[in-house]
Design brief:
By secondary structure, the chain is an alpha+beta fold. The chain has 2 helices and 5 strands, in the order ββββαβα.
Amino acid sequence: MSNDSTDSTKLRPRVLGLDVGSKTIGMAVSDPLWITAQGLETLRRRNKRTDFGRLNEIIRQYEIAEIVVGLPLRMSGAEGNQSEKMRQFAADLVQLAVGAP
């Protein structure tokens, strides 16, 4: 008898991981079984509209259900200016998802 919570062949929604920098955004997507992640293209940042437009295409193409944005920390483990920028970037992504048809 198969238990859905332990069935290793059960497909899961895909996750998109983002490593956001000032000039590029690194992207990786999970496979449907959550066993591996594959790197995608590195997005050269241009402006918010273009960047989010391309991210929206990726989200639709891979049927992404969840996005993880890397949070840069200082060597001490404390958050700094870059952390705040990533929190704002993540909040803007939420707005993109909420505003998407």
